[in-house]
Amino acid sequence: MYDFSKEDPAIWDAIADEQHRQDNVIELIASENIASKAVRAAQGSVLTNKYAVGYPEKRVYTGNEAIDKIDKIAKQRAEELFHAPYANVHPHSGSQANQAVYAAFLEPGDKILAMSEHAGGHFTHGQKNNFSGQLYESHFYGVDPETELLDYDKIREIALEVKPKLLIAGASAYSHIIDWHKFREIADEVGAIFMVDMAHIAGLVAADLHPNPMEVADVVTSTTHKTLRGPRGGLILAKEKYAELLDTAVFPISQSGALEHVIAAKAIALGEALTPEFHQYAVQIVKNAQAMANVFKRDEKIRLVSGGTENHEMTLDLNATGLTGHQAAELLYSVGIATNKELLPLEKGDTMEGIRVGTPTITSRQFDESDAEITAEIISDVLNHPNDDQLLHDAAAQVKALIESHPITR
Ligand code: PLP
């Protein structure tokens, strides 16, 4: 990176601090990852200087010859990777991708049906503290109280009652394969548009480890920075017939200038995701998550929500430890392990009685199953003995050893 320590020491030093933090933490926040040096270089390139309002060959300003090439490559790669007839790589974020889809298909006041936040849904799927819950009439489905898995019969029942205009599948904290076909059937039965937000699992879909929602969904949104391992950003995929509607919903309805430095970085990440190495990486993400889950299953106080994982993440119910999610996350962070507090499907209030644990970043650091198991054992020890100073000290030393043997090389 260009050394600007003299021009702006405050920002230079803060970035150095963040680099140091990332190097020295076992990062288990399921939505984070380590983008490659090429992705990061593109984001810091001269492309940030260029105003690119509109789409290739139909720009508002002159001078977009190189920009248009980049933009088209990113779009083509997204279409190739996800077998999508149409992709739009312009959304600045996952939230903006969702916003554009709603703008395309809904009028204010229309009904949407999505997964509840307690069950693992995202707040841009209709929560009242978000534009989606303020502009549209939102309804929610949860998970089965016994299995903590999606109950498609129940979702169907709710859909028949609500009659949503848009049915949304996809989650931020759900650790199992989602049956897109069952959702499609429900959407058809009630005459709804079917949208999938695959932000969390996009990398697993790219690697063919999870079914591709494009097979049946009308429209699919995603972020590019989670398991997909690209720059922070969003994208939309859809059936060809929605191309014009969605293009307009992104620009001019919800965005102005495209972030072409980010689109170039998305193109690079999408290219990386098309390689056999990425496939191996995605396979390892799941193996590492399952290795961690097996350790938690043996713990008498930590309860693994839904009893297992089929993707990159899992939620731990901490009620028997006496710790809230916030306390547990802070405690783990004190020994060098980053997680986040999480709502539990059956939690009555909104304390956040659990934590979410994910493996995309440690897998980018070359952790294998035995490293993942050791990490889970440290978590288990710490959460079972929150007041044992010697144990916490030893845990921090174990974390340090793991980190030092897995330096970030990307
Ligand atoms: N959709 C899902 C399922 C997510 O988990 C997230 C982020 O956590 C988003 C959308 C929003 O993405 P962004 O933070 O890029 O707006």
UniProtKB/TrEMBL annotation:
Taxonomic lineage of the native organism: Bacteria, Bacillati, Bacillota, Bacilli, Lactobacillales
Protein name: Serine hydroxymethyltransferase
GO biological process, one term: tetrahydrofolate interconversion
Subunit structure: Homodimer.
Membrane-crossing residue ranges in chain numbering: none
The protein's annotated pathway: One-carbon metabolism; tetrahydrofolate interconversion; Amino-acid biosynthesis; glycine biosynthesis; glycine from L-serine: step 1/1
Organism whose genome encodes this protein: Apilactobacillus bombintestini
Catalytic reaction annotation: (6R)-5,10-methylene-5,6,7,8-tetrahydrofolate + glycine + H2O = (6S)-5,6,7,8-tetrahydrofolate + L-serine
Residues with N6-(pyridoxal phosphate)lysine modification: 226
Positions annotated to bind (6S)-5,6,7,8-tetrahydrofolate: 240
